C-alpha cells in the first residue's frame, strides 16, 4: 500500500507538467506577433467602417428653368447616366452612373454644363434615436 501515494503523487506531477506545457504551447502558437503568421490570418479590427455618406453610383441633378427636355436628355446621355426618377417636373433628376466613374467625377462633369443648376451625391440620411 505504500506504492499508491507515490503513484498518485507522480500522476499529479505528470498531469501538472503536461498542462503547463500545453499552456505554453497554446500561448506561443496563437501569438499575433509570430513571424510565421500570414496576413490573411492576422486579426482584423473589430471596428466597422462607417457606411458611405451617399449612395454609390447615384447623383441628383437639378437643371435651370427653361432648359428643354431634349437638352436634358442629351446632357444625361452624354454623361452616361440613366434616370431612376424625375423628382420635380423637368428640373430635378435622380440618376444612376452607368460606368465605373466615381460619384465625384460625374458631379464635376455635370456641373460643368451651364444648364445644370447643381449636381450632388444622393446623400444617406438617418433619423436620430
Can you put this structure into words, describing what you see?
The protein has 129 residues and is α+β, with helices and mostly antiparallel strands. Helices cover 36% and strands 25% of the residues. It has a domain at 54-123: Alpha-Beta Plaits, CATH 3.30.70.80. A hairpin with a 3-residue loop joins strand 2 (81-88) and strand 3 (92-97).
Q: pLDDT average, as an integer?
A: 79
Distance between the termini: 74 Å
> In what order do the strands lie side by side in the largest sheet?
2-3-1-4
What is the tally of helical segments?
Answer: 3
Strand content: 15-25%
CATH class descriptor of the domain at 54-123: Alpha Beta
- Taken in chain order, the helices and strands follow as HEHEEHE
What do we call the CATH topology of the domain at 54-123? Answer: Alpha-Beta Plaits
Looking at this structure, what is the CATH superfamily of the domain at 54-123? Peptidase S8 propeptide/proteinase inhibitor I9
Number of DSSP-assigned strands: 4
Q: Could you list the spans in which at least 5 consecutive residues all have pLDDT below 50?
A: none
The secondary-structure class comes to: alpha+beta
Helix content: 25-40%
Shape: rod-shaped
Radius of gyration computed on alpha carbons: 33 Å
How would a crystallographer describe the biggest sheet?
Answer: 4 strands, antiparallel
The CATH architecture of the domain at 54-123 would be 2-Layer Sandwich
Amino acid at each position: 500500500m505504500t506504492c499508491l501515494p507515490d503513484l498518485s503523487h507522480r500522476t499529479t506531477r505528470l498531469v501538472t507538467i503536461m498542462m503547463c506545457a500545453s499552456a505554453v504551447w497554446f500561448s506561443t502558437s496563437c501569438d499575433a506577433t509570430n513571424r510565421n503568421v500570414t496576413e490573411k490570418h492576422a486579426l482584423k479590427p473589430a471596428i466597422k467602417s462607417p457606411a458611405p455618406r451617399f449612395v454609390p453610383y447615384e447623383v441628383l441633378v437639378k437643371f435651370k428653368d427653361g432648359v428643354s427636355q431634349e437638352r436634358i436628355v442629351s446632357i444625361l446621355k452624354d454623361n452616361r447616366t440613366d434616370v431612376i426618377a424625375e423628382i420635380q417636373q423637368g428640373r430635378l433628376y435622380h440618376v444612376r452612373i452607368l460606368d465605373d466613374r466615381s460619384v465625384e467625377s460625374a458631379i464635376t462633369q455635370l456641373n460643368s454644363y451651364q444648364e445644370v443648376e447643381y449636381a450632388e451625391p444622393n446623400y444617406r440620411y438617418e433619423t436620430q434615436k
